[in-house]
Design a protein that fits this description.
- There is one protein chain.
- With about 200 residues, the protein is mainly β.
- About 15% of the residues lie in helices and about 50% in strands.
- It folds into 2 domains: about 35 residues; about 150 residues, Calycin beta-barrel core domain (Lipocalin, Beta Barrel), CATH 2.40.128.20.
- The chain has a 10-stranded antiparallel β-barrel.
- The termini are far apart.
Length: about 200
């Protein structure tokens, strides 16, 4: 009986050795600790990322007159922007008024924070048509906010990118760009530089 067990053990060990030879060396060398799950990095709570925007501002606006046509003609306007917080900072309402050679411009932007996604959305409307845009959704990283959406434009669906940058306590920059090639290239068409109005 002992002899049969020894012979059986021998063949079993030989079979195991042969099996191990077929396992790629990289799999044999992986330490057990490497398979342990990595700790999940805490997600940034962005509820206060738009706090810089609250208040009254002077704005200088440049608007490209004919986007995605190769046009380089810009219309310029000067105006004011007033932003107030809603829902204890989880939303904001922005009112824009500006004037230039092209006439009077009035806009309204609603900012909403989604605490589950840790992202903001912004929805724009202008007084000339009273409709609302598709929500642009995004977040801030390293002091720069990027927001994206898809919109119909002249019979096509294009990508829209909004960037908030150069943010200080008393100034910041807003830029909207269009892309009709799936985001490979972007053409800025609405640029606003804002400086805080002194109370």
């Amino acid at each position: 009986m002992k002899l049969l067990w020894s012979i059986g053990s021998y063949f079993a060990l030989c079979a195991l050795g042969s099996l191990l030879q077929t396992v790629p060396p990289i799999m044999r060398a992986v330490p057990v600790a490497a398979a342990a799950p990595q700790p999940h990095e805490a997600q940034h709570d962005g509820q206060h990322d738009f706090d810089f925007n609250i208040g009254s501002w002077h704005t200088h606006i440049k608007r490209l007159e004919h986007p995605l046509t190769g046009s380089t003609t810009w219309a310029e306007m000067q105006g004011t922007v007033v932003v107030r917080k809603v829902w204890d900072g989880r939303a904001q309402l922005e009112e824009i008024e500006a004037d230039g050679a092209a006439g009077h411009f009035e806009g309204l932007t609603l900012f909403l924070y989604n605490p589950e996604a840790h992202q903001w959305s912004q929805i724009f409307s202008k007084s000339t048509d009273g409709t609302v845009s598709q929500p642009a959704i995004g977040e801030f990283k390293n002091g720069r906010g990027e927001f994206y959406d898809q919109e119909p434009y002249q019979g096509r669906t294009i990508l829209v990118r909004i960037v908030w940058s150069d943010i200080t306590r008393d100034s910041h920059r807003f830029e909207q760009s269009f892309s009709d090639d799936g985001g490979q290239t972007w053409e800025p068409n609405f640029v606003a530089t804002l400086t805080r109005a002194q109370s």
